[in-house]
Automatic annotation (TrEMBL):
It is found in: Golgi apparatus membrane. The keyword Glycosyltransferase applies. It comes from the Eukaryota. One of its GO terms (cellular component) is Golgi membrane. It is a single-pass type II membrane protein. It is an enzyme of class 2 (transferase). GO terms for biological process: protein O-linked glycosylation. Keywords: Glycoprotein, Glycosyltransferase, Golgi apparatus, Membrane, Signal-anchor, Transferase, Transmembrane, Transmembrane helix. It comes from Lutzomyia longipalpis (Sand fly). The chain crosses the membrane at residues 6-29. It holds the Pfam family Galactosyl_T. This is Hexosyltransferase. Its main location: Golgi. Belongs to the glycosyltransferase 31 family.
Amino acid sequence: MSPKRASLIVGFVSVTLVVYVYLFITWQLQYVELTRKKRQDFYNLMSWQSRNLTDFIQPDHRTCLICPKVPDVCRDGREANTTIFFVTTSPTNREKRDVIRSTWAQKANPKPFFVTGHIPDSKTMNLLEEEARLYNDIVVEDFVDTYVNLTLKTGFMFKNFLSICPKAKYMMKCDDDVMVNPNVVEALVAKVAGPNKPLIGRLFVSPEPFRDIHSKYYIPYWLYDKPLFPPYLSGPGYLVPGESVQKILEESFKEPLINLEDVFFTGIIAMEKLNMTLQNSKRFFTYYSMQMGKCAVQKAALLHHLEDKEMLDLWNEIWNGKLNCSSKHQGFRSVLSGIGIPPFFLRKNSLDLE
């Protein structure tokens, strides 16, 4: 190889290496800065001056900024076999609430209550107040409404259950991108009898905490330093026995808050501290796929990750009573197996209707 050619190759390699090192260092600096901002955003979004839930819930005081009236079913003694639905929502999610009101809420008695906090936008809060007067189904509590404050929101949900319908058989917590089938929920609840009723939902068994700051489910070590979470029910929707709500809420006042409400209330408090039973049900779908058969969807208690139009279309097409989904046409277990539903839905100890 000639000296000139060798010199060109060395020069090219040197320039390439310099560019690579420059890009790598730049990327690292940007990543560090992004991570720092993400971590700062995480801290800023928290409105916690304390990790004691009592300081926010104030169990001995009326705290709601907007409080709905108690429904008739909770006044006349019929609530003993009733499920009360609470939907966690944001002040800005008017369209999602309207979709729920026009779909699955029509099958619920009483109608679901929407639980939220406040945001700095006074126009949105004024509109929310008008909406609350119109529908009498919104609870607004005094905390900043952010995702990392979802544990506070769920704590207020427990508190409002005790003031609205404390003798109901079950309370259901769900998100506003979830479609519920109240008929299936009531059928599941009807199968549960006696004392020490279980919490019901999709059961996660000892998963690892998310330590990536960019994850939606990030939890820092200073909030939770154990290598595994306890078993818990997935947060998009789960059922809590009415008789257990006060016990869970009171016990939660003794434990330091974390930002993952499902882990906190169903795992740490209900399962670990109170030794309550968490019952898996394959009727709780925490995702929705077009590959799912219509009969499988119709027999689900809950579907998660639905856009507004998807929820409207599914409800109008599937829950209008025109599908023939008797067992001789399409059994629920065979439907799930046929479309590749994960094994945890098919556990032998899952609560089912068949």
